[in-house]
Design a protein that fits this description.
The protein has 93 residues and is an all-alpha fold. It contains 2 helices and no strands. It has 2 domains: 40 residues, no CATH class; 39 residues.
């Protein structure tokens, strides 16, 4: 028997989680030196769980900037090769 398509959850969690596990909270607190190894893990303070996401528009802008950098690097390499070739021809003449 198959599952009805309205009941299918898809590829798992589609949104960001708003809660850390206790281990994740302890890790975050240890990074900020607010929790020491061996301390009582009960009654931990709250830890902010905002995750930064990148929009499609931002991804496109990043990709365009990388393309422009690659083109500029290629043009600089071509110019250097032409200059080296021209210097080699001048020295030979």
């Amino acid at each position: 028997m198959s599952i009805h398509k309205s009941l299918n959850l898809g590829g798992g969690i589609a949104t960001t989680r708003s809660v850390f596990t206790r281990r994740e909270r302890i890790d975050k607190l240890m990074e900020r030196n607010e929790f020491e190894e061996g301390a009582n893990p009960m009654g931990l303070p709250k830890v902010r769980t905002s995750f930064r996401t990148v929009t499609k528009r931002q991804l496109k802008a990043i990709a365009a900037a990388e393309r422009e950098e690659a083109i500029a690097a290629q043009e600089a390499a071509d110019a250097a090769a032409r200059a080296a070739e021209a210097a080699g021809e001048v020295a030979a003449d």
